[in-house]
Amino acid sequence: MKIQVECYSGYKSNERPIKFWIDEEVFFVESIEDQWRGTDAMFFRVRADDSRTYVLSYNERTGPWTLGK
Fold first, then answer.
1. What does the pLDDT read at residue 1?
2. What is the pLDDT at residue 11?
3. What is the edge-to-edge ordering of all strands in the sheet holding 16-22?
4. Cα first-last separation, the chain
5. CB-based burial label for 58 (10 Å; 0-12, 13-18, 19+)
6. Which residue in 12, 14, 17, 28 has the fewest CB atoms around it within 10 Å?
7. pLDDT tens track for 23-55
8. What is the rounded average pLDDT for all residues in the chain?
9. DSSP 2
10. What is d(CA 24, CA 3) in angstroms, rounded to the nearest whole number?
11. H, E, C per residue of 4-62
């Protein structure tokens, strides 16, 4: 599922997600519980302000953010 993500960009672009939208609903990232690198993507397990955990991934080659399970 494609989503829209706003990120903190410090040392590099898209360093970490700070909020994201699923359809029209906005979620603020309260904490990053884990992050790891895949072959072409960065993955972030985040806890949002609705107390749920989400896995967000960013494909570094093609650019879109996606929502995982």
1. 65
2. 80
3. 4-8, 16-22, 25-37, 41-48, 53-59, 65-67
4. 10
5. buried
6. 12
7. 989 999 999 999 999 988 999 999 999 999 999
8. 91
9. B
10. 10
11. EEEEECCCCCCCEEEEEEECCEEEEEEEEEEEEECCCEEEEEEEECCCCEEEEEEECCC
**Pick from 60, 69, 68, 56: which is nearest to 4 by CA?**
56
Cα 62 from Cα 19, distance rounded (Å): 20
Q: Which tokens hold the place of 46?
A: 């985040």
pLDDT tens for each residue of 2-28:
699 999 988 877 789 999 999 989 999
CA proximity to 30, closest of 41, 44, 14, 11 = 44
- The number of residues in the chain equals 69
- The answer, as to whether pTM is greater than 0.85, is yes
